[in-house]
Amino acid sequence: MGSDSDLRYMIPAVDVLNDFGVPNETRFVSAHRTPDWMHEYAADAEQRGLLAIIAGAGGSAHLQGMSASETILPVVGVAVEPNPDPMNAAFASEVRMPADGGPLATMGKNEAGATNAGLHVVRFLSHVFPELKQMIRDRMETKAAEVLAKDARVVEIGPHAYLQEQKAKSKA
Amino acid sequence: MGSDSDLRYMIPAVDVLNDFGVPNETRFVSAHRTPDWMHEYAADAEQRGLLAIIAGAGGSAHLQGMSASETILPVVGVAVEPNPDPMNAAFASEVRMPADGGPLATMGKNEAGATNAGLHVVRFLSHVFPELKQMIRDRMETKAAEVLAKDARVVEIGPHAYLQEQKAKSKA
Amino acid sequence: MGSDSDLRYMIPAVDVLNDFGVPNETRFVSAHRTPDWMHEYAADAEQRGLLAIIAGAGGSAHLQGMSASETILPVVGVAVEPNPDPMNAAFASEVRMPADGGPLATMGKNEAGATNAGLHVVRFLSHVFPELKQMIRDRMETKAAEVLAKDARVVEIGPHAYLQEQKAKSKA
Amino acid sequence: MGSDSDLRYMIPAVDVLNDFGVPNETRFVSAHRTPDWMHEYAADAEQRGLLAIIAGAGGSAHLQGMSASETILPVVGVAVEPNPDPMNAAFASEVRMPADGGPLATMGKNEAGATNAGLHVVRFLSHVFPELKQMIRDRMETKAAEVLAKDARVVEIGPHAYLQEQKAKSKA
Amino acid sequence: MGSDSDLRYMIPAVDVLNDFGVPNETRFVSAHRTPDWMHEYAADAEQRGLLAIIAGAGGSAHLQGMSASETILPVVGVAVEPNPDPMNAAFASEVRMPADGGPLATMGKNEAGATNAGLHVVRFLSHVFPELKQMIRDRMETKAAEVLAKDARVVEIGPHAYLQEQKAKSKA
Amino acid sequence: MGSDSDLRYMIPAVDVLNDFGVPNETRFVSAHRTPDWMHEYAADAEQRGLLAIIAGAGGSAHLQGMSASETILPVVGVAVEPNPDPMNAAFASEVRMPADGGPLATMGKNEAGATNAGLHVVRFLSHVFPELKQMIRDRMETKAAEVLAKDARVVEIGPHAYLQEQKAKSKA
Amino acid sequence: MGSDSDLRYMIPAVDVLNDFGVPNETRFVSAHRTPDWMHEYAADAEQRGLLAIIAGAGGSAHLQGMSASETILPVVGVAVEPNPDPMNAAFASEVRMPADGGPLATMGKNEAGATNAGLHVVRFLSHVFPELKQMIRDRMETKAAEVLAKDARVVEIGPHAYLQEQKAKSKA
Amino acid sequence: MGSDSDLRYMIPAVDVLNDFGVPNETRFVSAHRTPDWMHEYAADAEQRGLLAIIAGAGGSAHLQGMSASETILPVVGVAVEPNPDPMNAAFASEVRMPADGGPLATMGKNEAGATNAGLHVVRFLSHVFPELKQMIRDRMETKAAEVLAKDARVVEIGPHAYLQEQKAKSKA
Lengths: 172, 172, 172, 172, 172, 172, 172, 172
Description:
By secondary structure, chain A is mainly α. Chain A has helices spanning 7-19, 35-45, 62-69, 89-95, 110-125, 131-157, 159-171; strands at residues 53-57, 75-79, 104-109.
């Protein structure tokens, strides 16, 4: 992450990796305040045994793309944008990388992006650690079951009652 | 790809995979005209032994996200946008995927995006096929050397002469 | 709807259909978490006797377009966007559908969009159930009368007094 | 249509309706140059026996929304935007209609939007003229078959040969 | 105005006209809920002796442009956009009017736009009522003097003290 | 105008004023290259007997707003934007003027904006020169008649023949 | 600054200059309410011994560009945009200045932009006052050290504990 | 510059510096293909005696911001965007730099931006080399004189003749 204020939006990536038992480290690396440290971190990452880097930053968001340019590891970017940015700066900075200039893989923003960044890495790692495959399937089925349960409930009690129930829960 | 008109923008992904000796297949799968076929393709992909899917489409660009939702393989999306779209529709469709709803990894658009999509997959596959690592390093060094050679040339002859030389080449 | 958090923004569609005595069902169908269920729902809809589908979802909003691709029923989409999205993702995803790839009819967003989605369906159904025609006319006249009453009031008491009255009401 | 320069982008709507044997008329009605005529056209449409209005216009694109406000018929809007508009004016004008203020159904832009506008209307009319249902299914199957044929071809000859074949065809 | 919720943003236009002694009326006219009334209001405006129309509405904002198309009076539009709209719909709807299709003059949004709409009308009316000219000059000088007084104060006490003073005032 | 390259987009304003017999002058005044001249022009305009200023410029487009701040005459702005600007800079610069900081009236862009700028001024001037009123009505009727004639023609020969006729004309 | 409400967003520029011991003055100059004063301020700035102007304003933001056009001093612009503007008006107004029409240097917005505006000026002034060079280096090292300290802490206690610590601090 | 294809858009910066007799060098430095070289170039720049860096790049445009983070010299950025980018990526990447994270000064795009980048640097350097001051004044006066000459000509022959003359020149 580029800043420690990004942590609360990026923690779901940590949680996903932990859920799947994938060891991971959390580091603060600022492209603009610690360019030397970014350089060193990206350059050493592969030798240190890392298999992928998930980079999250907002604003100009150079951390994501620069990291992709300074390592041979796959780099997955998450835009940290807690306050919607009319310029979409972080996304624009991520998805306009030149060919052969750091293949950055951009996920969504904030918590959703961080969750999916974790899952994207897990999917690829399942080719190295095949036991992850069934875990991915299970997780997808669990999420589907949650939707189906909600659907069964709204069919059972109707939309207005469901809405009331939902409001009651959110107050509780 | 969603349509055969996308092929010319996506072919660099094929070329990158071929450059690295990674076997690959090219298929047309339209989310909106062949939803059953999309469903079948994504659902069978893993059992058929595919390791990743690179999905390219333009406009509403549902192919990328839906594919990610229907397989446990990593899915990498490329926006095909030959005529700049003031709505940025394909990108918007790619980077707003919900958490746990198909972890789609978005690259840039058109040829640059396709090239980087290939490279992103290759980087991940290098954990399965370690011989890819040196090939990645070599390619990055070649690209760097091209820039350095141009830099040496512009230092040697100066910017105006360089520009003339460039124009002469593009005419030739 | 793609998620039960969409319900509060979509309920006006239910209300409109109920106002006109049009039977309807409310279901949760997530394009990304339950693609099989979406597929099944859309494919069976016509045989189950449904006459139209109103699909509401936010973010990447693939539910709307995919539903249109998987049924022969008319599909009307509503963008659920409670927090304004600088990318306009849901709209972009809706209005860039390819020709012959699912004719999705996009309404506005949130409650206004849901209300109008209900009304659009009712207008079409009035060709099947002609008694709806007069009901539509009556509703339009009621809405017009509300504006005219406000106009008469502001003419009567003047703009500053009207504003005071309005503030007083909103406090009460 | 708002202007006769819109005709070439809207003609696919005529073609779709003709393909399905749905009688239709093509008229020029400018919201800004002939507001009286627009008013008259929309007001009389239902009595003249029309079942739906497909309205296409660009720029401020008031024709679509105003038509929806002045009739009880369903109105389907198409944005005519041959030169991409960085303001997305026609779409913005269409999808911000107020609740109960003319339920306008917005399709995509230009030819694709016009095609889908025709198809959306046909889908709704299939509840009045059931013979349209099989025709819709047939058309969807034809479109799917086209994609599958292209897919079979690219599998057969490979992507580079396919691209060559495609270029050769476009020259011929 | 299109709706009575627009009134609080439009009242500065009333205030400006009152400040200059220009008689004015405040009316509610909805393009989408009362198209007939809009038509009647615009058509009769000139004969009733009005000299200009200031039209304020948000969302699709057709009131402004349609009014300009239905009268020979000058029409000045104000976008009512209390919650910033990422689509800039009201502005887009205003500034894409076709040539010779209602010359709509667009001011800024909300209170600032309403104030300036009033002032724009006053400037033009000063050719009919020359006594307005000196009043315009006086108002501009008053506004300038306010800035100069603030400038003198910040020079006197320095920026940090000024900021403290400002915060103290806003609390009081 | 800010630059002589703006002239071809602004000339319709001259033409409209000439059509109505309103005397006018065409001047080049650059906000950024000749700020003193802009200042002088705006400051002297009223004393020289001008009744309004139509200011056209592109890019940062400060000419429009600064002119409105430096005169008591009504100022009407036209955005000159021959190549669509994804930033919408000229419009943004025009419609964000502060309250009481130069009431700038913004029209559309290029030729359409220039035409309507001329018409807006003419409408206001019709209160000073009442003979303009009938001329405005006549022009509006002429424009309406053109649309109605096209409508009659498309009804007569049908849309496909009309399109052929249109293409034939544009070739001739 | 264009208005005294801009002061709280611009004060970091004052603070940076003070940190480096660079004398500075804070003035209110409104492009639209005090165009004469803006003209006078910019024209006299160089003779009064100023070395650079940092101009901050929001909305149409003409102050920045006009200042650059009316002096030979370097002008650095800061967009004051406390509420995100979907039109990005201030930036658009700043970065579309014509060639040779006032070379305006645009920094970011609000406090971050003001801080960097101060630093940009200090960097240039370091060629006139060489003692600033070491001060710049020291400040950059301090900022880097802050990031490294946070990184060491998150490594020490892990991301979840860090987040807890962070929340505890923000409450305290 | 990030790539040699940027040269034709950046050459006006070279020309401006040459016009003022300011020695300069033109180099190719790619943030994404040669991150080490970028690092080295920025780090050594001050010791090599450079006084400022003008960095031009398009797309993700990290070169500008990263350069500012890796040197104590002032850095001036130019967005190279020959084909308008609906995402405004290069600008977004430039103007969202964090406080104290590399004070990047952003100019306009392409040739106009490059010209103004040169002029901005020259203005600052005029504090080191005072003879530049008169040269700046002269250049501004020359540019103003060009506008005034055009204004005199359009007054002399009228707008339509001027337009004819302009068209004749552009053909010659």
